[in-house]
Amino acid sequence: MDPNEPPQPSPDWLDLTTTATPVRVGVWLLTTAGVVAVAVAHRSNPILALLLCLVVVTYGVLSISDAAEQRLPNRITLPLAGATFAGVFIGGIVRSDLGAGFGAMGIGLAFAVVLFVMRFGMGDVKMALSVGAIAGWLGRDAVFTTMFAGAIAGAVVAVVLIAVYRRRTISFSYGPFLAIGSVVGMVTAGL
After folding, report:
1. SS (H, E, C) the chain
2. Residue 69: count of CB within 10 angstroms of its CB
3. pLDDT number for residue 8
4. Alpha-carbon distance values, 141 to 113, 149, 185 (Å)
5. Nearest-angstrom CA–CA distance, 74 and 186
6. What is d(CA 112, CA 93) in angstroms, rounded to the nearest whole number?
7. Nearest to 167 by CA among 156, 159, 176
8. Which residues does 33 contact at the CB level (< 8 Å), separation at least 6?
9. Cα 176–Cα 37–Cα 125 angle in degrees, nearest 5
10. Other C-beta atoms within 10 Å of 68: how many?
11. What pTM does this model have?
C-alpha cells in the first residue's frame, strides 16, 4: 500500500440496506439460523448460550469479510481469540477445573498449528484459535464434529469449484467453513 494514498474507508459489514448482495444476505440468514440453533441447543445454560451466540454473530461478520476480500481482519480475529481463551480460562476457574480450560486452549493452539502447517492463510490460523478452544471447551465430540463438519463443507465447495473452473488447484475463502464447522460442533454439543 502506498503511504501517500489516502486510507480507504472500511466497509460496513453489517449494512444490508445499501450493500446487500446475495452472499451477504445468505451469510446473515445462515448466521441467524446458527444463532437460533445454538440458543435452542444450549437453552439449559443461558450464559453459555449467550456467549456462543455472540461468537456465531462474530463468525457472520468474519465470513462476510472473508468472502468479500479473502481475508479475516486482525481487529476481529485477535480479540475473538483473546476473549475465547479468557472465557475458557474463567470457565475452568468457575467449574473448579482448570485442566478443562487449559485443555481447551491447547486444542485451540493445535487447530491453529494444523492450519499453519497446511499453509492456510494467517487469518484462518488466527480464527482457528477460537474455533478450537470453543470445541475443546464443549468436549471431545464437539472437537471431532467441528473438524469434520468444517472440512467436509470446505471440501464439497472445493470439489464444485474445481469442477466448474476445471483446474486442479483453486483458491477460496476458508473462514466461512471454519465457522460452519464450529457452529455445527456447538449445536451438537448442546443436544
Report:
1. CCCCCCCCCCCCCCCCCCCCCHHHHHHHHHHHHHHHHHHHHCCCCHHHHHHHHHHHHHHHHHHHHHHHHCCCCHHHHHHHHHHHHHHHHHHHHHCCCHHHHHHHHHHHHHHHHHHHHCCCCHHHHHHHHHHHHHHHHHCHHHHHHHHHHHHHHHHHHHHHHHHHHCCCCCCCCCHHHHHHHHHHHHHHHHC
2. 12
3. 54
4. 20, 12, 8
5. 23
6. 24
7. 159
8. none
9. 25
10. 16
11. 0.87
51-109 tens-digit pLDDT: 999 999 999 999 999 988 889 999 999 999 999 999 999 999 999 999 999 999 999 99
Residue 98: CB partners within 8 Å, gap ≥ 6?
89, 92
